[in-house]
C-alpha cells in the first residue's frame, strides 16, 4: 500500500507538470511566432514479485513525465499594417544573431531599424541576418541607403501630334535635373515653319526668361525625319557641371494637318531626377529589402537569410519567441522563395495554440490529478484501517 501512495504521487507530479505546459500554451495564445508544446508521459520501471506456481507477477511503479514536444504547425497570419512586420509563409525561420555570435531562430517577425541603421527584433534588439550572392550571412543595415543620389537628365522623348493647322504650340513645365540634383523647368515652343520648309518646325527652348536655344525638327509624310528628329540642349548652371540633354521625337510622334486636327505633342519619357530621401522601407516576397525614395526611385539590395531544418527535433524553445538548434547537420540557410516560403510584409504569424484542444487537455489533466489524489487517499485509508485492526 505504501507503493500505491508512491504511484499516486507520480501521477500528481506528472499531471502538475502537464498543467504547467497547458498553462504556458494558453497564456501565449496571442504571442507572435509561439509554438505550442505537449508533455510526453511514460510508465515507470516494473518489479517482479513471486506468484503461485512459480509464475512472475510484474507490477508497475507509476507514471513518469518525459520530454515536451513542440508543435511547429503554422499559426494564423494576421495583418498589422507595419511594413517591417514580416511572416514567412512556409517552413523557414528568420535568423537572429546573439551577443556571443551564435544564431537563434524565430517565426516572430516583428522588426525595426535601430539608431545604427541595423535591422533588429523589436523585443530584444537582436540583429536580423541577410544572405548575399556568395552565401555569406551578414547583418541587414541601411548603410549607404539613407538617400538616393541625383542623376542628370540625358534624354527627353516627345510623343503625339504637331498639327500643321497651328502656328505655334507650347509644352510648359518640363523638369530636367543637373548632376547636383537641381531642378530646371524649361518650356518648349514649337513654331510652324512649313511655309519656308515643308514639314519643318522651329523649337525654342527657354528656362524662365532665358532662351537656351532655337532648333529645327522636320517631318516627312507626317513622320520624323532621321537626323532632324532631335536636338541637344545645354544648360550651364552656376557651381555645377554643365547639363547637356537630348530632346527627341519618339516613334509615335507625328505631324499632320487634317481638318480639325490640333497639336497634342507632349513629353513621353524622360530620365534624370533629384536627390531623394527615404519614404518607405519594406520587404518583397523574395525577402529583398526595398527602399523607396521621394524622387521616385527604389533600391533593392539585401536579402533576408532564411533557415530551414531537415528535422525539427533539434529545435529547442529558449523564450523570447526564439529557438536554438541542437543538430547543426540538419540546418540549411538560404533565401526566401518557393522552397523556404515567401515573405509577407505587414503581416505576422501568431501563436498556433488551439484553445479548444488545450481546454480538452486541461480537463484530462484535471481528472488525472483528481484520480491520482484519490489513489493516495484510498491507500492512506487502507493503511489506517490496517493500523486500527492491529490496535484491536
From TrEMBL:
Belongs to the flagella basal body rod proteins family. It comes from the Bacteria. InterPro entries: Flag_bb_rod_N, Flagellar_FlgE/F/G, Flg_bb/hook_C_dom, FlgE/F/G-like, FlgF, LlgE_F_G-like_D1. Residues 87-136 form the Flagellar hook protein FlgE/F/G-like D1 domain. It comes from Parachitinimonas caeni. The basal body constitutes a major portion of the flagellar organelle and consists of five rings (E,L,P,S, and M) mounted on a central rod. The rod consists of about 26 subunits of FlgG in the distal portion, and FlgB, FlgC and FlgF are thought to build up the proximal portion of the rod with about 6 subunits each. The gene is flgF. It holds the Pfam family Flg_bbr_C. Keywords: Bacterial flagellum, Cell projection, Cilium, Flagellum. Residues 7-35 form the Flagellar basal body rod protein N-terminal domain. This is Flagellar basal-body rod protein FlgF. Residues 345-386 form the Flagellar basal-body/hook protein C-terminal domain. The keyword Hydrolase does not apply. The keyword Repeat does not apply. Its main location: other. It is found in: Bacterial flagellum basal body.
Amino acid at each position: 500500500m505504501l507503493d500505491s501512495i508512491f504511484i499516486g504521487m507520480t501521477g500528481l507530479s506528472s499531471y502538475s507538470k502537464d498543467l504547467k505546459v497547458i498553462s504556458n500554451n494558453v497564456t501565449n495564445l496571442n504571442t507572435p511566432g509561439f509554438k505550442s508544446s505537449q508533455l510526453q508521459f511514460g510508465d515507470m520501471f516494473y518489479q517482479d514479485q513471486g506468484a503461485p506456481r512459480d509464475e512472475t507477477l510484474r507490477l508497475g511503479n507509476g507514471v513518469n513525465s518525459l520530454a515536451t514536444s513542440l508543435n511547429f504547425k503554422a499559426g494564423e497570419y494576421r495583418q498589422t499594417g507595419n511594413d517591417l512586420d514580416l511572416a514567412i509563409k512556409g517552413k523557414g525561420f528568420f535568423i537572429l544573431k546573439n551577443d556571443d555570435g551564435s544564431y537563434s531562430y524565430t517565426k516572430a517577425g516583428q522588426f525595426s531599424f535601430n539608431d545604427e541603421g541595423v535591422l533588429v527584433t523589436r523585443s530584444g534588439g537582436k540583429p536580423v541576418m541577410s544572405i548575399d550572392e556568395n552565401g555569406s550571412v551578414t547583418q541587414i543595415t541601411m548603410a549607404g541607403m539613407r538617400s538616393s543620389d541625383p542623376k542628370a537628365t540625358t534624354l527627353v522623348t516627345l510623343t503625339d501630334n504637331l498639327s500643321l493647322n497651328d502656328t505655334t504650340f507650347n509644352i510648359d513645365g518640363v523638369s530636367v535635373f543637373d548632376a547636383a540634383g537641381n531642378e530646371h523647368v524649361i518650356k518648349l515652343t514649337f513654331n510652324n515653319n512649313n511655309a519656308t520648309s515643308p514639314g519643318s518646325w522651329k523649337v525654342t527652348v527657354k528656362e524662365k526668361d532665358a532662351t537656351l536655344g532655337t532648333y529645327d525638327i522636320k517631318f516627312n509624310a507626317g513622320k520624323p525625319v532621321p537626323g532632324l528628329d532631335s536636338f541637344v540642349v545645354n544648360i550651364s548652371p552656376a557651381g555645377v557641371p554643365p547639363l547637356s540633354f537630348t530632346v527627341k521625337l519618339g516613334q509615335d510622334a507625328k505631324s499632320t494637318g487634317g481638318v480639325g486636327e490640333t497639336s497634342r505633342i507632349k513629353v513621353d519619357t524622360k530620365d534624370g531626377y533629384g536627390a531623394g530621401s527615404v519614404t518607405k522601407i519594406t520587404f518583397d516576397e523574395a525577402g529583398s529589402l526595398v527602399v523607396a525614395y521621394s524622387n521616385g526611385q527604389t533600391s533593392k539590395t539585401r536579402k533576408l537569410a532564411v533557415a530551414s531544418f531537415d528535422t525539427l527535433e533539434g529545435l529547442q524553445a529558449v523564450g523570447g519567441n526564439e529557438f536554438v538548434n541542437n543538430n547543426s547537420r540538419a540546418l540549411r540557410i538560404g533565401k526566401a522563395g518557393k522552397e523556404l516560403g515567401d515573405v509577407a510584409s505587414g503581416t505576422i504569424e501568431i501563436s498556433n495554440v488551439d484553445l479548444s484542444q488545450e481546454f480538452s487537455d486541461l480537463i484530462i489533466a484535471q481528472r488525472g490529478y483528481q484520480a491520482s489524489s484519490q489513489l493516495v487517499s484510498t491507500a492512506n485509508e487502507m493503511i489506517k484501517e490496517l493500523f486500527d485492526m492491529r490496535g484491536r
